Amino acid sequence: MSSGHDVVLDLDDIQSGALHERPSPYVGRYLLLRIEDRTAGRELVRRLVDIVDHGQPSAEPQQDAWITVAFTYQGLKALGVPQESLDSFAPEFQQGMAARAADLGDVGESAPEHWEHPLGSSDVHVALAALSPDAARLQAVVERARRAHQELPGVDVVWSQDCYQLPTGRTSFGFKDGIGQPSVEGSGLLPSNPKERPLKAGEILLGYPDETGELPPMPSPDVLGRNGTYIVFRKLHTKVAAYRQYLRAKATDRADEALLGAKMVGRWQSGAPLALAPDRDDPALGADPQRNNHFGFGDDLRGFKCPAGAHARRANPRDALDGEGSVNVRLHRMIRRGTNYGPALPEGVLEDDGADRGIIFVFAGAHLKRQFEFVKTQWLNDGVFIGAPAEKDPLVGPDEGDGTFTIPTRPIRRRLQALPPFVVTRGGEYCFAPGLRALRWLAELQT
Ligand code: HEM
Q: Cα separation of 156 and 161, whole Å?
């Protein structure tokens, strides 16, 4: 157990995946399983109780390899969770991501009918994530996962995906990712942005008060919900060649290309935030965890340094929005544990090589609707909140070749036109990662 400001988290009961920073760099694998036979499914869960990670992060580096498990609504159903209990989960979780697609902007090429099989179907029951600092240790941890489901004829692996992080932390578009994260009371981790107080634990974990002072809605029975968290998992293909071609066509020269790219994200490729490095990249700043997230937008309300429409500013407007109208930015924060997949497109290449590359976006939080869905629909897919109703997120928004992006500059603003989609949803799921006691409860279900 570890104490925060005014909360004590039951860390021994909480899976490590959401709260703890992972090794960097890392390699990992996601596995999706289908439970055909209820008894075999419960045996799988019984075995998983012994291998999922929880508790304080260990000081031993070899312990930095870990397994996290989460279930879809269909998965809980397949395990025989009583209907009354299934009905007590968040409605969005019960519906599943595919049913939410139109609202989330997963249309056209990103629509569920084009998703990778079996993503979004009722065949996805259990999601396992194995992460480790290197390939050798990943092998060992994947072997632990394999032992959990081997010789269980009623449990099948239906999908797997490898992921990795480069030592630079950069993802397919070339940007360092995973920098902006909230800290959580009681987790023992200090905020990377000292300007943002740690979030109440109930924003991320069920069973603790959240920012409203209330407990997040809890699934019943209590043992099933407590110390759990909702997980959003999305495979997002990135059109890196199209993105590079677009920047090449719009920029005056290479330096301008880097600037336009940074304006779209809100950070330079190194991770240096525009708020602190508005004119040119500062790789030392980007690499410095003490400084690279220590900023707000309060002194840049008009967006001359970082446009209000930039991806990271939309996703977390910080003090630019706080207190305005009824918006409380703290109610729309999230833990991101996204990873990178697929081979990098070599530097300078502008032609598409046909390879599949992108990010596996992973969200952890207690509120699917007011955190993930709100940010995706109101802040990334819409521009009303920044006074530009026709504009979507220039990097990840569902533009259809008609997108615009305004970059405030003096004396006249710059406007990028005809933005195509750079990200295609290949599928995803809403999951629930239970605490350890909840896993035991699931393993012991009798009905
Ligand atoms: C392929 C799709 C995406 C790419 C390539 C991408 C890339 C990035 C990059 C480069 C950053 C800045 C570095 C950082 O702070 O970690 C960032 C920040 C962020 N992104 Fe994304 N992102 C994607 C999708 C999404 C989605 C779907 C959401 C939420 C619904 C999201 C939420 C966030 C948040 C909350 C931040 C941190 C903002 C902050 O605290 O400053 N991203 N993203």
A: 15
23-45 b/e with 16+ CB inside 10 Å = b?
A: beebbbbbbbbbbeeeebbbbbb
Mutate to test the pocket of ligand 1, among 170, 199, 336 (most ligand atoms within 8 A of CB): 336
Best residue among 321, 396, 423, 424 to mutate for probing ligand 1, ranked by most atoms within 8 Å of CB: 396
Q: Confirm or reject: Cβ of 334 under 6 Å from ligand 1.
A: yes
Determine the Cα–Cα distance for residues 377 and 193; give it in Å rounded to an integer: 25
If you count DSSP H runs as helices and E runs as strands, how many of each does the chain have, helices first?
Answer: 14, 13
Q: Answer whether the bond into residue 389 is a cis peptide, omega within 30°.
A: no
As a whole number of angstroms, the distance between CA 177 and CA 276 comes to: 17
> 312 CB less than 6 Å from ligand 1?
yes
Rounded-to-integer distance, Cα 430 and Cα 307, Å:
31
For residues 169 and 178, what is the distance between their CA atoms, to the nearest angstrom?
Answer: 8
For residue 289, the CA-to-ligand 1 centroid distance in Å is: 17
Local structure of 265: helix, strand or coil: helix
Q: Is the CB of 333 within 6 Å of ligand 1?
A: no
Helices within 348-444 (DSSP H only): 374, 436-443
Q: Residue 2's pLDDT is what?
A: 40
Query: What would the pLDDT profile of 124-170 be if each residue is shown by its tens digit?
Result: 999 999 998 888 888 888 888 888 888 888 999 999 999 998 888 89
